[in-house]
């Protein structure tokens, strides 16, 4: 099992979700976060508002998957998030030692679904 964390541009969230659904990845957690990468404070336009400073709006996705869904999930995020511009984001893949479904008590890959 793996935990995939992706940081993407807010305006690409719908495209990423569409690609994930095509790849049959349906379990996703989404958070609005602030951060910056190499662009360090470049001015950016987001929904008609100019943003400057060190921290820019980003979306953080957390997706727990069984091993056979790792590559399809990475491909889906990459295809949905890529614009070719600086700031498209990053994907991190972490080992997930345990997962427990609270409702049933299932563990491991069965709990992920």
Main sheet specs: 4 strands, antiparallel
- Largest sheet strand order: 2-5-1-6
- E-strand count: 6
Shape: elongated
**CATH uppermost class:** Alpha Beta
Q: Could you tell me how far the N terminus lies from the C terminus, measured between alpha carbons in angstroms?
A: 11 Å
Order of helices and strands: EHEEEEHEH
Count of alpha and pi helical runs:
3
Strand content: 25-35%
Number of domains: 1
CATH architecture: 2-Layer Sandwich
CATH topology term? Alpha-Beta Plaits
C-alpha-based Rg, rounded: 16 Å
Mean pLDDT metric: 90
Helix content: 10-25%
Look at the helices and sheets and give the structural class: alpha+beta
- Unreliable residue stretches: none
What is the compact description of this entry?
With 113 residues, this protein is α+β, with helices and mostly antiparallel strands.
Explain this structure:
The protein is of the alpha+beta class and 113 residues long. It has a single domain, classed as Alpha-Beta Plaits, CATH 3.30.70. The protein has helices at residues 13-22, 70-81, 109-112; strands at 2-8, 29-35, 44-46, 49-51, 56-65, 89-95. Helix 1 runs antiparallel to helix 2 (70-81).
SSE map:
Blueprint (H helix, E strand, L loop, with lengths): L1 E7 L4 H10 L6 E7 L8 E3 L2 E3 L4 E10 L4 H12 L7 E7 L13 H4 L1
Antiparallel strand pairs: 1-5, 1-6, 2-5, 3-4
Helix pairs in contact: 1-2
